[in-house]
Amino acid sequence: MIYSHILGTGGYAPKRILTNQDLEKMVATTDAWITERTGIKERRIAAEGEATSDMAVVAARHALAMAGCSAEDLDMIIVATVSADMPLPSCAVMVQAKLGASRAFAFDLSAACAGSLYGLSIADQFISTGKAKRVLVVGAELLSRLVDWSDRNTCVLFGDAAGAMVIGPASDPERGLLSTHLHSDGGAAGMLSIPGGGSLHPQSEEVLANNMHKIAMNGREIYKFAVRVLPPAILEALDANGLQVSDIDHIVSHQANARIVESVLDRLGVPLEKCWLNLDRYGNTSSASLPISLDEANRAGRLKKGDLIAMMAIGAGMAWGSALMRW
Questions:
Q1: What would the pLDDT profile of 147-196 be if each residue is shown by its tens digit?
Q2: How far apart (Å, rounded) are the C-alpha atoms in residues 197 and 204?
Q3: Digit-coded pLDDT (tens) for 91-136
Q4: How far is the CA of 236 from the CAs of 78, 112, 141, 232, 250, in angstroms?
Q5: Catalytic residue at 278?
Q6: Does 142 share its domain with 191?
Q7: Residue 284 among the catalytic residues
Q8: Residues 154, 40 share a domain
Q9: Nearest alpha carbon to residue 162 among 144, 135, 142
Q10: Catalytic residue, candidates 69, 113, 155, 275
Q11: Looking at the 3D structure of the chain, how many domains does it have?
Q12: Residue 113 annotated in active site
């Protein structure tokens, strides 16, 4: 069996920083309120004229450089995003063109905050079957243009960023992606959505007037849902590979809210120190969150050869999942 492995990681966050103190001047909120409920202290905001594909390309180039390959080596490109440059065509083909990856086929994936994990799973199928040798998976979100800046329940949460992974066959049979496990529940779709702008509610004066083209969410219900489904997802991955919670060396998680991560790890009995946390600096960057966390932990020298890494993510859909990788 061919195991796939992450050959290179990369990340990008815009230069502009929006702090909680800045938000105090924009909406009825406080630094203490945001920090206590979310763990977020600041988030990044894309520059005027900067598009999702621009951020994705920077992260991709960092990942390619680490992997020691060029854009021409890529067989496929998956961009996980809910904030593409435009509805048509895909953000992925924009990234392909900007990178000069002429050999690669490219497409977008919509699984919100779980997008990069879904993308990793798809890439793994192409690698393990020999259909592809080099796959670029990018999670990129420009959410600052999708939030209602008058809604303190959502505007304090999200930030702009991109994270990338180059995936290929593992050269060492003892290393690589062991398994991925994906789930969804469309019955919970109303918890987090952008209700307007699609075929159900096409763009109109009414949609714009009611801010239906902006993110709407029920944070309390999302918290309860996440804390309920993520621990079993990690246990599912461990059981599939005959491993125990105590075998986990690192948790790499999508970070929507620090309280969710803390609660999930507490239920699993995993020390918080095993999870790379950067939510305080970036906020919720949706599909970019997991690969950025992986990249930071990787570049900090936190991940050692042979370490067991458990990944988890949950997003709108609701869509969630887990993965296990021997680094």
A1: 999 999 999 999 999 999 999 999 888 899 999 999 999 999 999 999 99
A2: 8
A3: 999 999 999 999 999 999 999 999 999 999 999 999 999 999 999 9
A4: 25, 22, 29, 6, 17
A5: no
A6: no
A7: yes
A8: yes
A9: 142
A10: 113
A11: 2
A12: yes
